[in-house]
Amino acid sequence: MMYNQTFNLDQVAFATEGIKDAQQTMSALKSANKELKGMMKTVNISDIDSMQDEMLDMMDISTEIQESLGRSYNVPDDIDEEELLGGMLDALEADMGAEIESDAVPSYLQPDRESDLDSELNLPAAPTGNAAAVLNRVNPQVYLSITY
């Protein structure tokens, strides 16, 4: 019996919470409805339709401009683009086939050849020997005036 009474009290508490939540939801819906009505007074559907029509017209004009700028001059009308594209693809395939058949390595995949930079630059040989011997040959007065 005690279990049933506790269950009934829990059910009443749950129902009370549900009604409070429903009241809060209704209050929020009323305020949202009021806010939406105020905002809808500032929006005119005919203005939106006319703006959309203007945008569509501008897009059409833009497309016409692009088509006009993309015109080709001195190109015969009887050229088939598909045929032209097919010919270019055939030429590419032939080039690739020649590379594959000859087992040749393309130049961009070949290792870099290191050239003899010394011969290209014509630089003198680096000095060898003791640096102190070089300093002994230098006039001390000149050396001191250079370093200080």
Layout of secondary structure:
Layout: H1 2-40, H2 45-69, H3 81-101, H4 117-121, H5 131-137, H6 140-147
Can you tell me about this structure?
With 148 residues, this protein is mainly α. Helix content is 71%, strand content 0%. The chain has 6 helices and no strands.
Strand composition percent = under 5%
Mean pLDDT: 79
Radius of gyration: 45 Å
Q: Care to count the β-strands?
A: 0
Report how far apart the termini are.
110 Å
Helix content: over 70%
Order of helices and strands: HHHHHH
Global geometry? elongated
Biggest sheet overview: none
Low-confidence runs of at least 5 consecutive residues: none
Organism: Ensete ventricosum
Keywords: Coiled coil
InterPro entries: Snf7_fam
GO cellular component, one term: multivesicular body
Core attributes:
about 150 residues, mainly alpha, about 70% helix, Charged multivesicular body protein 5, Snf7_fam, coiled coil
Summarize the structure.
The protein has 148 residues and is mostly helical.
